[in-house]
Amino acid sequence: MILVSESARLYRQEVRGNPDEPQAYERDGSGGAGDGAFAVNYAPTCYYPGGIFEELPAIASKFLRSPDVSGQAWENVTKTQSTPNSVKKLLRERHGLGVTFLIPSENQRPWSPPVGYQCVYESYFRDDTKLWFPIPRLITSYARPRDAAISQFLNGSWRIAVALMVMAAEIDVSLSVRVFEELTSVSSLDDGLLLIKMRPSYSVIGRHPNKTPDWQRSYFFVKCDDSAFEDPPDDDYCVLWNTLLGRTSSLTPDHPTSRDYPEDFLTSARAVARLAQEHWGNISWERVHRSIDRISRSNYPLSANKTKRRISLFTKEEQKKINEERKMRGLPDLSAMMMVKINLPSVELPAPSNEMAVADTTDASPRPQDSSAGTTTLAPKKKKGGEETP
């Protein structure tokens, strides 16, 4: 029998209500909940103040999803290597108070969490990615309109998100979903995974790890509540992997133009895009922790625009000068020089560190375990009519 302190009991009652009653989720159509549900003693565990972990009542079988879903099978995805001890250690290190988790059974896979849960990888919260709890709103807001599961993204994808959120917060800029979309592109890999990369013209992050060994081997399920997510996924949030995203243009989310979107979008996007390039190795946990409060105050409006054409954040001449400046090394204040040369509105930017340098990575054919999000520093190719090719 697990002994729980009175403070933990009060915390549970205040934040979660009565845990003895299973939450009444409706069938969301995203998995096999209730269809041939299998019997398993599936008890979640919650992390309470004081370093206390309590095992909660088992989830009813009707809320479980079967991993056997048509189109949801990849050889590179095997049973999880996460254990109760490994997840408890992670939650202690990341101060995940209030997070409720489940260890998948031997047959469950990332696309089969119980109703009301999402799958995440331990590597998302380790040094190679540096996500935190509660998971920032940008992550859920980016995946939702793409009808993609959070677990479908390579850890290098969320590494890009973390770095951009931190860099934007340090210059007091809100990195909205719209800004993030304009600075990045997403592609689908043959193993069902999705890869987010910086667009070549806006490559402000360099020297990513080329590979995180076994990054997707350890995964677990987290309850969709305020302790685990800033913006908890609802019942309609996707858990199945989207096999068409990045392959079918009709499933690519709309990209608003400046005429259809608030002016502060362009201001924010330009402020981030003209930052001097930062090395991933310089995005420390200390910088992340200092930025979390600013990031959590950001707003992420969704767009109702119907065009898919991207916006050019800079004119052709401005972009040419920015690219030329990024090729130069050892400048004492590269950001200031860039702003003066292209005559952009002044934005108070942090002085670049000694580690900042030009991008030295190039795109390579992604492999199943490759978490690289490297980009080239070449200007984007042009189609007829002047449209950029990401």
UniProtKB/TrEMBL annotation:
Region Disordered: start-end pairs: 348-390
Skewed-composition ranges (Polar residues): 362-378
Protein name: Uncharacterized protein
Organism: Brassica carinata
